[in-house]
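note to self: dont lose this again. the chain is below, predicted strucutre after it. 155 aa total, dont forget to put it in the shared folder this time
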Amino acid sequence: MPQKTYDEVIIEARARQQNNISSGRQQAHGLGERQSARDIEFEVIGVAAERVIAHLLKIAWIVDTSGPQYDGDVGNDEVRSTAHLNGSLLLHKQDPSDRICWLVISGGERKYKVAGWIPIIEGKREEYWQERVQGRACHFVPQSALYSLEDYVPF
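---
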């Protein structure tokens, strides 16, 4: 990711973070306080991942600071991100089953890799359901279950 784009990502992530704090929004899925340094790191990775997918799909994208929406992160698609090289795509029961979800891996500042995508309905298979942290169960979809970019067909 070019430095200029990454600088924009940081500004957008801070705006999203500030809007969440001023609106009193709680972290989803028990992730803790919104004002932690870890939270802004999550926002940066998340905003960057959304930008990567928007660029890939050639979709105009503007950072959403209005809070949880049900119109997709990028177009009608959902985007998840992780800083774990072998990390799973995490899906929750309330994720809309009629969409697809992308997984983007952060390899550090300005380095992002698209791991793949999956229809959310397929990712919600019972075999992926785990509670790795008490009280925070979800579907952990392994990267090996994701479709490649070449297989992408918009819903």
